[in-house]
Structures are given as C-alpha cells and as structure tokens.
Amino acid sequence: MTASRAALTRRSLRLKINVHKVRLGGEEYRVISPFGPLRNGALYRYGTNQYNMYVDRPDGRRIGALWLLAARSPRSLVYLPTRAPAKEFGGAYGDEWGETPLDLVLAHRAVQFRPSRWKELRARMRAGNAPREVRTASLPEGELPADTPEIEYAAPSDPANRNLLHQHVHAETLFLTGGAAAFRESAPHIFAVTKEGPPAAATELYLSGGCNYHVCRSLYHWPDLDARERDQIHVEFCPPWSR
User: Fold this and answer.
1) What's the CA gap between 76 and 84, in Å, rounded?
2) What does pTM read for this prediction?
3) What are the CA-CA distances from residue 230 to residues 27, 146, 224 (Å)?
4) Which domain holds residue 85?
C-alpha cells in the first residue's frame, strides 16, 4: 500500500455541494449536502456511550470541510449521508458488534430546527421537486486547521466547555447542534486522522479487528462527559478504504 502524501492545502477546503431549499410547515429550510456520495465515510452508534465515525483521507477531508462550513452557515442544515450498510471494514462489524448506522446533520444553533421534523424534511428533499443548486464552497485559507493535541483536558469550570455540541438522535440521524466555535474546535481532529492515517496504513502491520495500529481522534476531551449528558464521538481512519 502506498501512503498518500497529499498535504492539507487551500484546495482541501474547496468542495462541491448541493444546496436544497425545502418548505415545511410554512417555513423554508436551506440544506447543504455533499455533491456525490460519501463512499468512504460512515457513522455508527456503538454501545450506549459512543459514536464511531470511519473515514479515509479524501472523504474524511470532505467531512472536515463540511464541519467548518457548518460553523459559517447559521441559516443552514448540513446533511452528511453517512448511514452506510453494516459491513466489515477494519473495525466496524455492524450488528455483531452492536453498531447501528446513522446519518449526520450539523446544525448551527441559530437555525433552531427541531430534530423531530427531520424525517418529513428529508422526505421532501428526496422527493425530487425541491429546488436544488450545485455550488462550489470555498472556505478561507485562514480556516485551515492547525495541528491540535490529541488530549487536552479542560477544567469543569473552564468557559470552553460551553462549546460542547448538543446531541440528538431522530429518524436514524445524529444531530449535532452548537455555535461556530464548537464546530471549529472539533474539526481539526477530523483532519488530523486524515493526515496521520495513510502513513501508518502504508508502513505498519494491520489486522482487521486487531490493534496492531490504530489511528483515531476523539472530538471531546473533557473527563466529565457523562455528567454533561454527552457521548464521545470517535473518528477512526479505515485502512482497507485506502487500498
């Protein structure tokens, strides 16, 4: 396997998107989604206190860019179709390991969208008659994330703890809701996995289901997540997808 040496550049923060405008209950909602499927990006609910996201480098960077786009889109929902069918891909084994596939919606708190309305909104968006535009989103070069330490615990009283993303699951979809800072602070961990994963996959022994090497990041680094009624979001590089 050859390691991808593609560096994170300004081009990494340019991506084609679909912009849907959907009316529901007298209101119009703007929904952003990636142009083209996320073939190598999947989200699973694991057990009772963790979400696992699996990515390769290209789709991991698309997800990271959409994460940053959510920070800049206070009037939009960002929809990532990550509900991949249960399959073996180096860590996720579907029902056998208690993993449930989920889609993902990133919502700036200013949207004030109730997750209970998502199923109907999604159906209208997929009906084919909702207005849709294909655009290219370009994020400023200044938003290229710097390397972020893997573990950085904050004191429970630290004001930064207010930036935790709120979590809700409805209609097979995980909703993450928060302000711009919450999305910007977690995005670098996604990009870090796409940077560190390919070299490890090219040079180290990997056995499916084993721990010969493991490239991952956790989006939250607070020791009291349970008390805050949050579950960990764990992002892992998936080696078989990079072959």
Assistant:
1) 24
2) 0.85
3) 30, 25, 9
4) 10-148+163-242
